[in-house]
Please model this.
Amino acid sequence: MQTLILTILVLGLLVFVHELGHFLTAKWAGIAVPRFSIGLGPRVAGIRYGETDYCLSAVPFGGYVKMAGMEGEEAFEQLEGGPVEEVIDEEVNVPPEQRYDNKSIPVRLLVVSAGVLMNFALGWVIFVSLALTEGRPTVLGTTVEEVDSLAARRFGQLAALPRGATIIEVEGQAVENWHEVDAAIARGQDGVVDLALASGETVSVPVRDDDDRRALSSGLIARVEPLIAELQAEGPAARAGIQVNDRIVSIDGIGTDAFVDVTRLVRERPDQDISMVVERPAGSGTLVTVDVRTGSEKNPRPGDGKFVDMGWLGVTAAVGNIELGFRDAIVAGSLSTWRAGSLITNGLYQLVSGGVSLRALGGPVAIGQMTGHFARRGFSSLLGWIALFSINLAILNLLPIPVLDGGHVLFLGIEGMRGRPLSSNQKLRLSQLGMVFLLVLMAWAFTADILRLVGL
Model:
C-alpha cells in the first residue's frame, strides 16, 4: 500500500509540473483556461477561481489543461470526464483574442511545448541539486570493469581495454579516481585521447567533438570494489551479521573481484541460502564465513525487460564523493540530464528497430515496482528516479502522436508549411487515431506488466 501511495504521489507531482507549464504559458499568452485537472475521468473535487476550475479527477494517472479554442481535443473528452456544461458555456463566450487558435504559431508552439520543457527542467533541477548537496559520487580508483557495448562499437580502439585494466594517465595527466578520469577526458582536445595503462600500454581513442568525449566518458565503466559502505536496516545482510567495512571475497565459492560480481551472483539467487566469505575488516587478511538468506524482489531483466524474481542483500558499495561548487554542480547535473535523455532515446530506438522486445514496455505496475525499488534504496535514489522519470515523460510527450504534445507540434508544423491550419475535422480524425493508438499501447503495456508478474 505504501508503494501504491508513493507511486500516485510521484505521478501526481510529474503531471502537476507538466500541466503547470501549459497553464502558466497559456495565462501568459492571454489564453482562457476553463479547467486545470490533476487526474482523468469524472471530477471529484476542486475549487473555481476566476475563469478556471482547479480540480482533482477520479483516475490518478494523467491530467490536462483545457484551453479555449484548442481544436482536436474532442477525442480526449471522455478521458477528461466528458463535456461539462459550464466549461462549454464559458468557451462559447470567450473573446476571440483569448482563444488558442487565434494566437500566432510561435506562441502556440511555446504553449504546447511548455509541459515538456517543465519536465526537462524538473529533472535537471533535481540532478543539479543532488550534485550540489551530495557532491559527485566517484569510484576511488581507476580500474576499468568493462566497456559499454555502444561505446565499444563506436570506438573500436576500446577493445584493447581488458577487464581489470587500470588507467594511470589521461592525456598525460595523472589520475587517481574516476572523477579525474572523466574530467581529463572532458578537457581533452579534439583529435585523440590517450589512455595510459598501468601495464605500460597506451590506448589512443579518436574523438571529434564534445559528443565523442561524452560517449567515451560514459562508455568506460569503472570497477567498484566489493567493499560494504552501508547496510539497509533489517535487510538480509544486516540480519545475517554482515558489517560495514566488510569486503566480500566470495559467494558460494565464486570469487567476487568487483561489486558487479556480487550483484550478479546475488540476483541469480532469490530467496536462497548462500555462503559468503568476507574480509573483516577490509585489508586485515581475516576471513569470516557468513550464511545469508537472500531477499527477493521483482526487477526488469536486462535484455527483454521482463520482470523476474531477483535476489538482494541490502548493501551499498563504498564510493567516494567529490564536493562540487555551484558551477561544477550545474555541469554535473546537466551531464546527468543528457545521459538520462540519451538512455531513454536509445531505449525507444531499440523498441522501434526491434532491438528490444515490446514485452519490455512497462505500465503502471512496472512504474510502481521501480518507485518502490528506488524508495527502499533511500531518498536520494528516489529523487534520482523522479528526475529520470520526469525526463522520460518529457521525451514520450514529444512523440509526434496526435493528442500528445508532439502531435500538437506536428499540427503547427503542418500549418506553418501549408500556410493554413488543418481543418477541425482533420484534427479530430487524426486525434481519434492517436487516441486509439495510445489506448492500445497502454493496454499492451498493462498486459506486459501482468505477464511479467506471473512469470510469462
The longest helix spans residues 105-134. Residues 85-89 have pLDDT under 50 and may be disordered. The CA atoms of residues 210 and 240 lie 47 Å apart. The chain has 13 helices and 18 strands.
